[in-house]
Design a protein that fits this description.
Elements (H helix, E strand, L loop, with lengths): L3 E4 L2 E3 L3 H12 L5 E3 L13 E2 L9 E2 H14 L3 E3 L3 E5 L5 E5 L4 E4 L2 E3 L3 E3 L15 E2 L2 H4 L7 E5 L3 H10 L5 E5 L9 H9 L3 E4 L2 E9 L4 E9 L5 E5 L2 E4 L3 E3 L10 E2 L2 E2 L13 E3 L11 H29 L1
Parallel strand pairs: 1-9, 2-3, 2-10, 3-6, 10-23, 12-19, 13-14, 13-19, 14-15
Antiparallel strand pairs: 4-5, 7-8, 8-9, 11-20, 16-17, 17-18, 21-22
Helix pairs in contact: 1-2, 1-6, 4-5
Length: about 325
């Protein structure tokens, strides 16, 4: 027999956005169900040192922070489901969703907080040295490289913005790009080329991230010229891969409006184009992508849900 769950508020994703929405939704008496997805806790579960989340003087661990958020959500009444949604029907309310377990979920409102993942190069040593000198977020990790030598890999807006941001911490920033021109907006390029602490290496691709030391950390990158094939090596303390992010929105293609894969929401809210469906966190945010902004958007989503359901209940009573 197929298991079914019905809820006033269904949340997809259990990162800072999803769990913050669950906390606020539970406190509003909505008894939310959180479908945790393939990576319970989201991206922070693979982040070691977290130094910029408000309220903690000392460095904390990403997995620990998510454990605390989940415990708080459960304490106030949210229910966690270890499942992965594979099918969604948003054509009518209650919305119908199917889990990989075969479980069916019926929801009066839906909060999509499935997040986004950084794109990686796939070069040798990249995965091994993640968190040990290789990062995909300068805003998150740039502080750890104060006064050190860093490189940024990429050629779009993200890469140029990361390089410019890193000059707040380092006077030796190198942008590595596999082509001979950047894709970034012209105004960003002008700022980049004018900055005295940034240099650009053209037609260079990362062949390998090189580790060393005890404990092991990044010590350099091996490069290959994309035109001549010539190989070279540069020493560096930190490498920031900035080739974009991929929001987890595959389930909603042709069902909800998107921009480059990110769910579109009404300005100043978390409302999508379908009444009763909301989006929060990195799945709809291609600008900030921080744990604290995701948590804030989760709060917004819960408040938007509460207002939507109250209005829907009033209309239903009025129609009787």
């Amino acid at each position: 027999m197929t298991a079914t769950h019905s809820t006033r508020m269904l949340i997809l994703g259990s990162g800072p956005a999803g769990l913050s929405a669950a906390i606020y939704g539970a406190r509003a008496g909505l008894a939310p169900i959180v479908v945790q997805g393939m990576q319970p806790g989201g991206q922070l579960t693979i982040t070691t040192d977290v130094e910029n989340y408000p309220g903690f003087r000392d460095v904390i661990q990403g997995p620990w922070l998510m454990e605390q958020m989940q415990a708080q959500a459960e304490h106030v009444g949210a229910q966690m489901m270890y499942d992965q949604i594979i099918d969604v029907d948003l054509s009518e309310r209650p919305f119908r969703l199917k889990g990989d377990s075969g479980t069916l979920y019926y929801a009066d409102s839906l909060v999509i907080a499935t997040g986004a993942q950084a794109k990686w190069l796939g070069a040798e040593g990249e995965q091994l040295l993640q968190g040990k000198g290789v990062s995909a977020c300068a805003t998150c990790d740039g502080f750890f490289y104060r006064g050190k030598k860093v490189v940024v890999i990429g050629g779009g807006n993200t890469a140029v913005e990361e390089a410019l941001y890193l000059t707040n911490h380092s006077h030796d920033v190198t942008l590595i790009h596999r082509r001979d021109s950047l894709r970034a907006e012209k105004i960003l390029q002008q700022r980049l080329f004018a900055h005295p602490h940034i240099k650009v290496l053209w037609n260079q691709a990362v062949d390998r991230f090189v580790g060393g030391g005890d404990p092991e950390g990044l010590v350099g990158v091996d490069l290959i010229d994309t035109v001549t094939g010539h190989k070279s090596h540069i020493e560096t303390d930190g490498a920031f891969v900035a080739i974009g992010h991929q929001p987890a929105t595959e389930l909603f293609v042709d069902k909800l409006p998107m921009d480059e894969g990110y769910l579109l929401v009404e300005k100043g809210t978390t409302r999508t184009a379908i009444p009763g469906v909301f989006a929060a966190g990195d799945v709809s945010d291609k600008v900030y992508r921080q744990a604290v902004t995701a948590a804030g958007m989760g709060c917004m989503a819960a408040l938007d849900v509460e207002k939507f359901l109250a209005e829907a209940d009033f209309e239903a009573v009025a129609a009787e």
